[in-house]
Amino acid sequence: LSPGAKMGCFTFIKVMMILFNLTIFLSGGTLLGIGIWVSVDGKSFVNIFGTLSSSVMQVVNVGYLLIAIGAVLLVIGFLGCCGAQKESKCLLMMFFSVVLIIFIVEIAAAVVVLVYTGFAETFLSALVTPALKEKYGEDESFTRTWNDTMNEVRCCGLNNYTDFLNSPWYSEHNYTFPAACCNYLQPCNEAQAQKSNVSGCFDRILEELKTNANVVGGVAAGIAALEVASMVVSMYLYCHLDKK
C-alpha cells in the first residue's frame, strides 16, 4: 500500500476505535448510575422491574455488581478512547492489558463453570441452605423473594424440599413445606413433597442454561470476539505509532 493509503487506513481504524470505546464509556457510565440508584433505592428498582428483579437481587447484590461492571467499562472506554485520540502508546498498552486480563478471567470462569459445576452447587448449598433454614418463614422480604423465585422457575429450594426442614416456616405451618415443593397440592407434607419430586432451583437454572446453550454460547463468543478485535486494533495502533 502507498503511504497515503496506509495513513487513511490508520485514520479509519483510529476513528472506529474512538467511537467504539466512546460507546463503551457511555455504557459504563449508564450502568454505574443504575448501580448507584439500585444500591441507594432498591425498592424503586423492584417496583419498576417486578418480581424477577427481586429474585435476582436475592442471589446477587445487583447494585454493587452494576457498579463494578460500570466502573470497569468506564476505565476500558477511557483508556481506549483517549489512547486512540491522543495516540498514546502508554494508554493503548494499558487498554490492551486490561482487556487481556478480563479475557483471561472470562476463559478461566467458563472453565470453572463447565468443569466444577458440582463444586459450585456445593458452595452455594453451604451458603444458601443455612439461610433458608434460618430465615424462610421469619424474614418477610426473604420469604417473599424465594416464593417469587420458586413460582417463576417452577422449583423448590436450592436443592429440594429438604432445604426447608426445621425452618421457621416448617415449624409454624404444621411441619409442611412451601406449596411450590408439591406442585401446589395441599397439604404439602413430606410424603407429598417426596411424591411430587420437584427439582431444586439450582438444577432448574442449569437446565434453562443448557436449553439456551446456543444463545448463551453465541453471546459469550460475540463478547470474546469483540475483546480479541479490540486487542488486535489497539496493538495495530500501538505498532503503527512507531512508524509515524
From TrEMBL:
Listed InterPro entries: Tetraspanin/Peripherin, Tetraspanin_animals, Tetraspanin_CS, Tetraspanin_EC2_sf
Membrane-spanning intervals of the chain: 12-38, 58-79, 91-116, 215-239
Membrane topology, from the record: Multi-pass membrane protein
Cross-referenced Gene3D superfamilies: Tetraspanin
GO cellular component: lysosomal membrane; plasma membrane
Taxonomic superkingdom: Eukaryota
Pfam families named in the record: Tetraspanin
Keywords linked to the UniProt accession: Glycoprotein, Lysosome, Membrane, Transmembrane, Transmembrane helix
Compartment list: Lysosome membrane; Membrane
Family to which the UniProt record says this protein belongs: Belongs to the tetraspanin (TM4SF) family.
Assembly information from the UniProt record: Interacts with SLC19A2. Interacts with NTRK1/TRKA.
Protein purpose: Structural component of specialized membrane microdomains known as tetraspanin-enriched microdomains (TERMs), which act as platforms for receptor clustering and signaling. Participates thereby in diverse biological functions such as cell signal transduction, adhesion, migration and protein trafficking. Regulates neuronal differentiation in response to NGF by facilitating NGF-mediated activation of NTRK1/TRKA receptor tyrosine kinase and subsequent downstream signaling pathways. Plays a role in the inhibition of TNFalpha-induced apoptosis.
Protein name in the entry: Tetraspanin
